[in-house]
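Side project, low priority. Logging it here so it doesn't get lost.
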Amino acid sequence: MNYISKKEKFSFLTGLAGQNIVYCMIGASFFTYFMTDIALFPPAVVTVLLLLMKIWDGVNDPIIGSIVDRHRFKNGEKLRPLLKYTPVPVGIFSVLIFIVFSTKESLLWLRVSYFVIVYLCWDIFYTMQDVAIWGMTAVVSPNSDERDKFVQWARSVGSIFYGVFSALIPMIMETVAKHSGNSLALMTAIFAVIFGLGGALISAKCHAAQERIRLVKPTAQQTSFVECFKLLFQNKMLMLITLSNLFGSLAFGNNLVTYFFKYMFPEDYFGGFLGALGLTTVYFAITTAPSFLGMLLADKLKKLCHGYRNVLILSQLCTMIGKLAAFLIGFEGNNLLIGMAVMSLLSVPSGAVGIAQTSLFCDSVDYMEWKTGKRTEGVTFSMQTFFTKISSGIMGSLTTFSLGLIGYVAVEDVPGAIYYKTQCATFEAWIWPLVMLTPALAALLYLIPLLFIRYTPEQKAQVEKELAERRAKAEVE
Protein backbone atom coordinates (compact mmCIF):
# COMPACT_ATOMS: atom_id res chain seq x y z
CA MET A 1 0.00 0.00 0.00
CA ASN A 2 1.25 3.50 -0.89
CA TYR A 3 0.52 6.43 1.41
CA ILE A 4 2.21 9.54 -0.02
CA SER A 5 0.13 11.61 -2.47
CA LYS A 6 1.70 13.42 -5.40
CA LYS A 7 0.67 16.79 -3.95
CA GLU A 8 2.29 15.97 -0.62
CA LYS A 9 5.49 14.81 -2.30
CA PHE A 10 5.66 17.88 -4.56
CA SER A 11 5.18 20.28 -1.63
CA PHE A 12 7.83 18.55 0.47
CA LEU A 13 10.34 18.49 -2.40
CA THR A 14 9.67 22.19 -3.12
CA GLY A 15 10.38 23.04 0.50
CA LEU A 16 13.49 20.86 0.48
CA ALA A 17 14.74 22.73 -2.59
CA GLY A 18 14.31 26.00 -0.69
CA GLN A 19 16.23 24.66 2.32
CA ASN A 20 19.13 23.57 0.12
CA ILE A 21 19.25 26.98 -1.53
CA VAL A 22 19.77 28.43 1.95
CA TYR A 23 22.48 25.93 2.83
CA CYS A 24 24.40 26.46 -0.41
CA MET A 25 25.21 29.95 0.87
CA ILE A 26 26.74 28.63 4.13
CA GLY A 27 27.64 24.97 3.63
CA ALA A 28 29.52 25.22 0.32
CA SER A 29 33.14 26.19 -0.27
CA PHE A 30 32.07 29.80 -1.00
CA PHE A 31 31.54 30.35 2.73
CA THR A 32 35.23 29.86 3.48
CA TYR A 33 36.13 32.14 0.57
CA PHE A 34 33.67 34.73 1.92
CA MET A 35 35.41 34.68 5.29
CA THR A 36 38.97 34.96 3.95
CA ASP A 37 38.63 37.14 0.83
CA ILE A 38 35.43 39.18 1.33
CA ALA A 39 35.05 39.63 5.09
CA LEU A 40 38.87 39.59 5.25
CA PHE A 41 39.24 37.57 8.42
CA PRO A 42 42.88 36.40 8.69
CA PRO A 43 43.33 32.67 7.80
CA ALA A 44 44.35 31.84 11.39
CA VAL A 45 41.18 33.51 12.72
CA VAL A 46 39.05 31.65 10.19
CA THR A 47 40.62 28.35 11.24
CA VAL A 48 39.79 29.00 14.90
CA LEU A 49 36.30 30.26 14.07
CA LEU A 50 35.44 27.18 12.02
CA LEU A 51 36.73 24.86 14.73
CA LEU A 52 34.73 26.63 17.43
CA MET A 53 31.63 26.64 15.25
CA LYS A 54 31.86 22.91 14.72
CA ILE A 55 32.56 22.19 18.37
CA TRP A 56 29.30 24.02 19.00
CA ASP A 57 27.65 21.83 16.35
CA GLY A 58 28.99 18.77 18.11
CA VAL A 59 27.19 19.82 21.29
CA ASN A 60 24.15 21.41 19.70
CA ASP A 61 22.97 18.84 17.15
CA PRO A 62 22.62 15.68 19.30
CA ILE A 63 21.02 17.71 22.11
CA ILE A 64 18.41 19.16 19.75
CA GLY A 65 17.88 15.71 18.27
CA SER A 66 17.26 14.19 21.68
CA ILE A 67 14.89 17.04 22.61
CA VAL A 68 12.94 16.34 19.43
CA ASP A 69 12.73 12.64 20.33
CA ARG A 70 11.53 13.38 23.87
CA HIS A 71 8.94 16.03 22.98
CA ARG A 72 5.46 15.62 21.55
CA PHE A 73 3.27 18.46 20.33
CA LYS A 74 -0.40 18.52 21.31
CA ASN A 75 -1.42 16.72 18.10
CA GLY A 76 0.91 13.83 18.94
CA GLU A 77 3.53 14.72 16.31
CA LYS A 78 7.18 15.41 17.10
CA LEU A 79 8.65 16.52 13.74
CA ARG A 80 6.12 18.15 11.44
CA PRO A 81 5.23 21.25 13.54
CA LEU A 82 8.92 22.29 13.54
CA LEU A 83 8.70 22.65 9.77
CA LYS A 84 6.16 25.42 10.28
CA TYR A 85 7.97 27.49 12.91
CA THR A 86 11.66 27.41 11.90
CA PRO A 87 11.85 28.87 8.33
CA VAL A 88 11.51 32.58 9.25
CA PRO A 89 14.32 32.71 11.87
CA VAL A 90 16.54 30.59 9.58
CA GLY A 91 16.00 33.14 6.80
CA ILE A 92 16.66 36.19 8.98
CA PHE A 93 19.93 34.87 10.38
CA SER A 94 20.98 33.65 6.91
CA VAL A 95 20.98 37.31 5.86
CA LEU A 96 22.64 38.72 8.97
CA ILE A 97 25.57 36.31 8.76
CA PHE A 98 26.67 37.83 5.41
CA ILE A 99 26.62 41.46 6.53
CA VAL A 100 30.16 42.89 6.34
CA PHE A 101 29.94 46.21 8.19
CA SER A 102 33.70 46.82 8.22
CA THR A 103 37.03 45.29 7.23
CA LYS A 104 39.19 47.42 9.54
CA GLU A 105 41.76 45.46 11.53
CA SER A 106 41.04 47.60 14.60
CA LEU A 107 37.45 46.29 14.63
CA LEU A 108 38.38 42.66 14.14
CA TRP A 109 37.24 41.70 17.67
CA LEU A 110 33.82 43.29 17.06
CA ARG A 111 33.41 41.68 13.64
CA VAL A 112 34.35 38.28 15.03
CA SER A 113 31.95 38.66 17.98
CA TYR A 114 29.09 39.64 15.67
CA PHE A 115 29.82 36.73 13.34
CA VAL A 116 29.94 34.16 16.17
CA ILE A 117 26.66 35.32 17.77
CA VAL A 118 24.76 35.37 14.48
CA TYR A 119 26.12 31.98 13.44
CA LEU A 120 25.14 30.36 16.75
CA CYS A 121 21.58 31.65 16.39
CA TRP A 122 21.38 30.50 12.77
CA ASP A 123 22.71 27.07 13.68
CA ILE A 124 20.12 26.42 16.41
CA PHE A 125 17.15 27.11 14.14
CA TYR A 126 18.68 25.44 11.09
CA THR A 127 19.42 22.27 13.08
CA MET A 128 15.84 22.10 14.35
CA GLN A 129 14.54 22.41 10.80
CA ASP A 130 17.04 19.99 9.27
CA VAL A 131 16.43 17.29 11.90
CA ALA A 132 12.69 17.59 11.29
CA ILE A 133 13.00 17.51 7.48
CA TRP A 134 15.16 14.41 7.29
CA GLY A 135 13.44 12.76 10.23
CA MET A 136 10.23 12.97 8.19
CA THR A 137 11.74 10.62 5.59
CA ALA A 138 11.68 7.87 8.21
CA VAL A 139 8.06 8.43 9.27
CA VAL A 140 6.31 9.57 6.09
CA SER A 141 5.35 5.98 5.20
CA PRO A 142 5.40 2.57 6.91
CA ASN A 143 6.09 1.04 3.49
CA SER A 144 9.90 0.80 3.23
CA ASP A 145 9.88 0.53 -0.57
CA GLU A 146 7.79 3.69 -0.87
CA ARG A 147 10.00 5.32 1.74
CA ASP A 148 13.16 4.44 -0.22
CA LYS A 149 11.69 6.03 -3.35
CA PHE A 150 10.71 9.09 -1.34
CA VAL A 151 14.26 9.31 0.01
CA GLN A 152 15.62 8.96 -3.53
CA TRP A 153 13.47 11.88 -4.70
CA ALA A 154 14.32 13.95 -1.64
CA ARG A 155 18.05 13.40 -1.91
CA SER A 156 18.03 13.93 -5.67
CA VAL A 157 16.11 17.20 -5.49
CA GLY A 158 18.15 18.42 -2.52
CA SER A 159 21.46 17.54 -4.16
CA ILE A 160 20.50 19.05 -7.51
CA PHE A 161 19.41 22.36 -6.01
CA TYR A 162 22.39 22.45 -3.67
CA GLY A 163 24.82 21.60 -6.46
CA VAL A 164 23.35 23.98 -9.03
CA PHE A 165 22.84 26.97 -6.74
CA SER A 166 26.11 26.56 -4.80
CA ALA A 167 27.84 26.78 -8.18
CA LEU A 168 25.72 29.47 -9.85
CA ILE A 169 25.28 31.92 -6.98
CA PRO A 170 29.01 32.73 -6.51
CA MET A 171 29.57 32.88 -10.28
CA ILE A 172 26.63 35.21 -10.93
CA MET A 173 27.48 37.28 -7.87
CA GLU A 174 31.08 37.75 -9.01
CA THR A 175 30.08 38.46 -12.63
CA VAL A 176 27.55 41.12 -11.59
CA ALA A 177 30.09 42.72 -9.24
CA LYS A 178 32.79 42.60 -11.91
CA HIS A 179 30.72 44.29 -14.59
CA SER A 180 28.81 46.71 -12.35
CA GLY A 181 31.76 47.97 -10.35
CA ASN A 182 30.15 47.03 -7.02
CA SER A 183 32.04 45.21 -4.29
CA LEU A 184 31.58 41.51 -3.62
CA ALA A 185 30.64 42.39 -0.03
CA LEU A 186 27.61 44.36 -1.23
CA MET A 187 26.60 41.71 -3.77
CA THR A 188 26.91 38.97 -1.13
CA ALA A 189 24.49 40.82 1.17
CA ILE A 190 21.98 41.30 -1.67
CA PHE A 191 22.19 37.65 -2.72
CA ALA A 192 21.78 36.58 0.92
CA VAL A 193 18.42 38.37 1.01
CA ILE A 194 17.30 36.83 -2.28
CA PHE A 195 18.49 33.28 -1.71
CA GLY A 196 18.97 33.06 2.08
CA LEU A 197 15.69 34.61 3.18
CA GLY A 198 13.84 33.61 0.00
CA GLY A 199 14.96 29.98 0.18
CA ALA A 200 14.02 29.78 3.87
CA LEU A 201 10.48 30.99 3.18
CA ILE A 202 10.12 28.39 0.42
CA SER A 203 11.30 25.69 2.83
CA ALA A 204 8.07 26.11 4.81
CA LYS A 205 6.40 23.95 2.12
CA CYS A 206 7.94 20.88 3.80
CA HIS A 207 5.19 21.20 6.40
CA ALA A 208 2.80 19.54 3.92
CA ALA A 209 4.38 16.11 4.56
CA GLN A 210 2.48 13.82 6.94
CA GLU A 211 3.94 12.06 9.97
CA ARG A 212 2.50 8.54 9.63
CA ILE A 213 4.71 6.38 11.85
CA ARG A 214 4.36 7.00 15.56
CA LEU A 215 4.93 4.76 18.53
CA VAL A 216 1.63 3.25 19.54
CA LYS A 217 2.61 3.81 23.19
CA PRO A 218 4.53 7.12 23.30
CA THR A 219 5.25 6.64 27.02
CA ALA A 220 7.69 3.89 26.01
CA GLN A 221 9.88 6.53 24.40
CA GLN A 222 13.19 7.41 26.08
CA THR A 223 12.87 9.91 28.91
CA SER A 224 16.36 11.26 29.50
CA PHE A 225 19.29 12.73 27.61
CA VAL A 226 21.50 9.95 28.94
CA GLU A 227 19.25 7.28 27.45
CA CYS A 228 19.09 9.19 24.15
CA PHE A 229 22.87 9.12 23.87
CA LYS A 230 23.04 5.48 24.91
CA LEU A 231 20.66 4.62 22.08
CA LEU A 232 22.72 6.76 19.73
CA PHE A 233 25.91 4.83 20.43
CA GLN A 234 24.12 1.49 20.26
CA ASN A 235 23.25 2.26 16.64
CA LYS A 236 26.32 0.68 15.05
CA MET A 237 25.25 1.37 11.47
CA LEU A 238 24.77 5.06 12.23
CA MET A 239 28.14 5.30 13.98
CA LEU A 240 30.02 3.65 11.10
CA ILE A 241 28.45 5.87 8.44
CA THR A 242 29.16 8.93 10.57
CA LEU A 243 32.80 7.88 10.95
CA SER A 244 33.07 7.45 7.18
CA ASN A 245 31.76 10.96 6.66
CA LEU A 246 34.20 12.40 9.15
CA PHE A 247 37.01 10.78 7.14
CA GLY A 248 35.42 12.26 4.03
CA SER A 249 35.86 15.74 5.47
CA LEU A 250 39.60 15.40 4.86
CA ALA A 251 38.85 16.18 1.21
CA PHE A 252 39.52 19.86 1.90
CA GLY A 253 41.24 20.23 -1.47
CA ASN A 254 37.78 20.77 -2.96
CA ASN A 255 37.60 24.05 -1.01
CA LEU A 256 40.92 25.19 -2.51
CA VAL A 257 39.73 25.15 -6.12
CA THR A 258 38.73 28.84 -6.09
CA TYR A 259 42.15 29.86 -4.73
CA PHE A 260 43.77 27.66 -7.38
CA PHE A 261 41.96 29.45 -10.20
CA LYS A 262 42.36 32.92 -8.70
CA TYR A 263 46.12 32.76 -8.35
CA MET A 264 47.25 30.13 -10.87
CA PHE A 265 45.24 31.03 -13.98
CA PRO A 266 45.39 34.23 -16.06
CA GLU A 267 42.36 36.52 -16.29
CA ASP A 268 41.89 35.80 -20.00
CA TYR A 269 41.34 32.05 -19.40
CA PHE A 270 38.00 31.14 -21.01
CA GLY A 271 37.93 34.55 -22.72
CA GLY A 272 38.33 36.60 -19.56
CA PHE A 273 34.58 36.79 -18.90
CA LEU A 274 34.75 34.65 -15.76
CA GLY A 275 36.69 35.28 -12.58
CA ALA A 276 37.92 32.74 -10.03
CA LEU A 277 34.42 32.00 -8.71
CA GLY A 278 33.12 31.56 -12.25
CA LEU A 279 35.96 29.21 -13.20
CA THR A 280 35.28 27.23 -10.03
CA THR A 281 31.66 26.86 -11.14
CA VAL A 282 32.75 25.59 -14.55
CA TYR A 283 35.17 23.15 -12.92
CA PHE A 284 32.57 21.62 -10.60
CA ALA A 285 29.89 21.66 -13.30
CA ILE A 286 32.06 19.56 -15.60
CA THR A 287 33.46 17.21 -12.97
CA THR A 288 30.16 16.52 -11.18
CA ALA A 289 27.43 16.86 -13.83
CA PRO A 290 27.19 13.08 -14.51
CA SER A 291 26.56 12.52 -10.80
CA PHE A 292 22.98 13.68 -11.42
CA LEU A 293 22.60 10.56 -13.54
CA GLY A 294 23.69 8.55 -10.52
CA MET A 295 20.79 10.01 -8.54
CA LEU A 296 18.30 8.84 -11.16
CA LEU A 297 19.92 5.41 -11.30
CA ALA A 298 20.28 5.00 -7.53
CA ASP A 299 17.78 2.15 -7.35
CA LYS A 300 19.46 0.32 -10.24
CA LEU A 301 22.89 0.85 -8.66
CA LYS A 302 21.48 -0.55 -5.41
CA LYS A 303 20.37 -3.74 -7.18
CA LEU A 304 23.58 -3.98 -9.22
CA CYS A 305 25.78 -3.58 -6.12
CA HIS A 306 23.53 -5.70 -3.86
CA GLY A 307 22.75 -2.93 -1.40
CA TYR A 308 23.41 0.73 -0.71
CA ARG A 309 26.51 0.01 1.38
CA ASN A 310 28.25 -1.29 -1.74
CA VAL A 311 27.07 1.74 -3.71
CA LEU A 312 28.96 3.91 -1.22
CA ILE A 313 32.06 1.78 -1.64
CA LEU A 314 31.87 2.00 -5.44
CA SER A 315 31.49 5.78 -5.37
CA GLN A 316 34.59 6.24 -3.20
CA LEU A 317 36.70 3.97 -5.37
CA CYS A 318 35.71 5.98 -8.45
CA THR A 319 36.47 9.27 -6.69
CA MET A 320 39.91 8.06 -5.61
CA ILE A 321 40.83 6.82 -9.10
CA GLY A 322 39.58 10.01 -10.77
CA LYS A 323 41.51 12.37 -8.49
CA LEU A 324 44.74 10.37 -8.75
CA ALA A 325 44.47 10.26 -12.54
CA ALA A 326 43.83 14.01 -12.75
CA PHE A 327 46.82 14.75 -10.50
CA LEU A 328 49.14 12.69 -12.70
CA ILE A 329 47.78 14.33 -15.86
CA GLY A 330 48.45 17.82 -14.45
CA PHE A 331 46.89 21.19 -15.27
CA GLU A 332 49.28 22.77 -17.77
CA GLY A 333 47.77 23.69 -21.13
CA ASN A 334 44.82 21.46 -22.03
CA ASN A 335 45.76 18.85 -19.43
CA LEU A 336 43.34 20.39 -16.94
CA LEU A 337 40.43 19.76 -19.30
CA ILE A 338 41.55 16.15 -19.84
CA GLY A 339 41.76 15.55 -16.09
CA MET A 340 38.34 17.13 -15.62
CA ALA A 341 36.89 14.80 -18.25
CA VAL A 342 38.29 11.75 -16.40
CA MET A 343 36.81 12.91 -13.09
CA SER A 344 33.52 13.61 -14.84
CA LEU A 345 33.21 10.06 -16.19
CA LEU A 346 33.95 8.56 -12.79
CA SER A 347 31.54 10.83 -10.88
CA VAL A 348 28.34 8.93 -11.78
CA PRO A 349 28.14 6.70 -8.64
CA SER A 350 28.74 9.69 -6.33
CA GLY A 351 25.27 10.98 -7.18
CA ALA A 352 23.74 8.11 -5.21
CA VAL A 353 25.78 8.76 -2.04
CA GLY A 354 23.25 10.99 -0.30
CA ILE A 355 20.38 8.66 -1.20
CA ALA A 356 22.30 5.62 0.04
CA GLN A 357 23.24 7.26 3.35
CA THR A 358 19.72 8.48 4.10
CA SER A 359 18.22 5.09 3.22
CA LEU A 360 20.70 3.39 5.58
CA PHE A 361 19.83 5.91 8.29
CA CYS A 362 16.12 5.06 7.90
CA ASP A 363 17.01 1.37 8.12
CA SER A 364 18.94 2.06 11.32
CA VAL A 365 15.88 3.75 12.87
CA ASP A 366 13.78 0.65 12.12
CA TYR A 367 16.54 -1.58 13.48
CA MET A 368 16.73 0.37 16.73
CA GLU A 369 12.94 0.18 17.15
CA TRP A 370 13.12 -3.58 16.54
CA LYS A 371 15.96 -3.93 19.03
CA THR A 372 14.84 -1.51 21.79
CA GLY A 373 11.16 -0.68 21.14
CA LYS A 374 12.04 3.02 20.71
CA ARG A 375 12.21 5.14 17.58
CA THR A 376 15.05 7.67 17.38
CA GLU A 377 14.39 9.78 14.28
CA GLY A 378 15.39 12.97 16.09
CA VAL A 379 18.77 11.91 17.44
CA THR A 380 19.54 9.78 14.35
CA PHE A 381 18.96 12.57 11.85
CA SER A 382 20.58 15.10 14.14
CA MET A 383 23.70 13.03 13.55
CA GLN A 384 23.21 13.45 9.81
CA THR A 385 22.96 17.21 10.33
CA PHE A 386 25.91 17.03 12.70
CA PHE A 387 28.28 15.24 10.34
CA THR A 388 27.21 17.46 7.44
CA LYS A 389 28.15 20.58 9.36
CA ILE A 390 31.13 19.13 11.20
CA SER A 391 32.51 17.87 7.90
CA SER A 392 32.16 21.29 6.29
CA GLY A 393 33.77 22.81 9.38
CA ILE A 394 36.70 20.43 9.34
CA MET A 395 37.13 21.00 5.62
CA GLY A 396 37.02 24.75 6.11
CA SER A 397 39.47 24.66 9.00
CA LEU A 398 41.90 22.44 7.12
CA THR A 399 41.51 24.72 4.09
CA THR A 400 42.56 27.85 5.92
CA PHE A 401 45.18 25.99 7.97
CA SER A 402 46.78 24.64 4.79
CA LEU A 403 46.63 28.10 3.19
CA GLY A 404 48.59 29.45 6.14
CA LEU A 405 51.18 26.66 5.83
CA ILE A 406 51.82 27.37 2.15
CA GLY A 407 52.20 31.11 2.68
CA TYR A 408 48.84 32.39 1.42
CA VAL A 409 48.05 36.09 1.94
CA ALA A 410 44.48 37.27 1.19
CA VAL A 411 44.17 40.14 -1.30
CA GLU A 412 41.33 42.61 -0.79
CA ASP A 413 38.68 42.50 -3.48
CA VAL A 414 39.13 45.32 -6.00
CA PRO A 415 36.93 45.40 -9.14
CA GLY A 416 39.07 44.81 -12.23
CA ALA A 417 42.20 43.78 -10.30
CA ILE A 418 44.41 40.93 -11.59
CA TYR A 419 45.61 38.40 -9.01
CA TYR A 420 47.37 35.87 -11.28
CA LYS A 421 50.74 34.74 -9.84
CA THR A 422 50.57 37.08 -6.82
CA GLN A 423 51.24 34.34 -4.25
CA CYS A 424 54.58 32.90 -3.13
CA ALA A 425 56.46 29.97 -4.70
CA THR A 426 55.40 27.59 -1.91
CA PHE A 427 51.75 28.28 -2.68
CA GLU A 428 52.32 27.66 -6.40
CA ALA A 429 54.13 24.37 -5.70
CA TRP A 430 51.59 22.91 -3.27
CA ILE A 431 48.16 24.13 -4.36
CA TRP A 432 47.68 21.51 -7.12
CA PRO A 433 48.67 18.47 -4.98
CA LEU A 434 46.39 19.67 -2.19
CA VAL A 435 43.45 20.17 -4.59
CA MET A 436 43.72 16.65 -6.01
CA LEU A 437 45.36 14.35 -3.47
CA THR A 438 43.45 15.23 -0.30
CA PRO A 439 40.09 14.10 -1.83
CA ALA A 440 41.76 10.88 -3.00
CA LEU A 441 43.07 10.17 0.52
CA ALA A 442 39.69 11.01 2.06
CA ALA A 443 37.93 8.58 -0.30
CA LEU A 444 40.31 5.80 0.71
CA LEU A 445 39.74 6.38 4.44
CA TYR A 446 35.97 6.66 3.88
CA LEU A 447 35.90 3.04 2.71
CA ILE A 448 37.25 1.51 5.92
CA PRO A 449 34.23 1.90 8.29
CA LEU A 450 31.84 0.77 5.54
CA LEU A 451 33.51 -2.65 5.50
CA PHE A 452 32.20 -3.28 9.05
CA ILE A 453 28.50 -2.75 8.23
CA ARG A 454 26.76 -6.13 8.32
CA TYR A 455 23.06 -5.40 7.66
CA THR A 456 21.94 -7.75 4.90
CA PRO A 457 18.74 -7.47 2.79
CA GLU A 458 17.52 -10.62 4.53
CA GLN A 459 17.96 -9.04 7.97
CA LYS A 460 16.19 -5.90 6.78
CA ALA A 461 13.19 -7.93 5.56
CA GLN A 462 12.98 -9.80 8.85
CA VAL A 463 13.11 -6.58 10.91
CA GLU A 464 10.35 -4.96 8.85
CA LYS A 465 8.16 -8.06 9.09
CA GLU A 466 8.45 -8.29 12.87
CA LEU A 467 7.87 -4.54 13.33
CA ALA A 468 4.70 -4.73 11.27
CA GLU A 469 3.49 -7.64 13.41
CA ARG A 470 4.27 -5.77 16.66
CA ARG A 471 2.43 -2.64 15.55
CA ALA A 472 -0.60 -4.62 14.41
CA LYS A 473 -0.70 -6.48 17.73
CA ALA A 474 -0.32 -3.28 19.77
CA GLU A 475 -3.16 -1.57 17.88
CA VAL A 476 -5.46 -4.50 18.62
CA GLU A 477 -4.55 -4.38 22.30
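Brief comment: Confidence is low (pLDDT under 50) at residues 216-222.
Revisit when time allows.
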